[in-house]
Design a protein that fits this description.
The chain is built from 8 helices and no strands. By secondary structure, the chain is mainly alpha-helical. Helix 3 packs antiparallel against helix 4. Keywords: Membrane, Transmembrane, Transmembrane helix. It comes from Shewanella litoralis.
Length: 183
């Protein structure tokens, strides 16, 4: 049951922009905020210790969706992608200061015996991710403040994921070549 709830809540979080868009179009006012609040709360409860770093964004998301329901302010739902980007920026930036860098940690899951020469490269890639989170968060904020719900949904529900996917796959492919060259 726990695994099923984790899968459902993960899918909802990934599809958050689409859920907001369709919820605002087809559900009575406030229902999507309440539904998302319950799903985020469920996610926090089933996640427990697995992803402690993401507890703060979940709490803020619960606050945003709960306050949106209580205040009857659907526009507050649009700021959750901003919160996620700020949280990831904080997490990756913290790893640059306190080491090892986030990308080094992730790389060591698959390749525990990374050469010492890879450490600075992985720090640079972590900085690149920080830059993406800054840009992505700024555009997410702009779409929440100054564009239509359709544009917000297009950016936060598709374009942002494409950008993340491009950086993720491009860096992973490049790292394979880089490691072979520096081995």
């Amino acid at each position: 049951m726990r695994l099923l709830l984790q899968i459902i809540t993960t899918l909802v979080i990934v599809a958050y922009p689409l859920a907001v868009y369709f919820g605002l179009q087809y559900l009575p006012p406030g229902y999507i905020a309440l539904l998302l609040c319950v799903l985020l709360l469920t996610r926090m409860l089933v996640t427990k210790q697995q992803v402690r770093a993401m507890v703060l964004p979940l709490i803020v998301g619960i606050g945003l969706t709960g306050a949106s329901f209580i205040a009857k302010r659907n526009d507050w739902l649009l700021y959750y992608p901003v919160v996620i980007n700020l949280s990831l920026l904080s997490l990756f930036s913290y790893s640059l200061v306190h080491g090892p860098s986030m990308i080094e940690r992730l790389a060591r899951i698959k390749e525990p015996d990374l050469p010492d020469s890879a450490i600075e490269y992985l720090r640079t890639i972590t900085k690149l991710w920080c830059g993406l989170f800054v840009v992505n968060g700024a555009i997410a904020a702009y779409t929440a403040i100054a564009t239509t719900i359709e544009m917000w949904t297009l950016y936060n529900g598709l374009i942002a994921y494409v950008l993340i996917g491009m950086l993720l796959s491009g860096e992973w492919i490049y790292r394979k070549f880089w490691l072979k060259k520096h081995d």
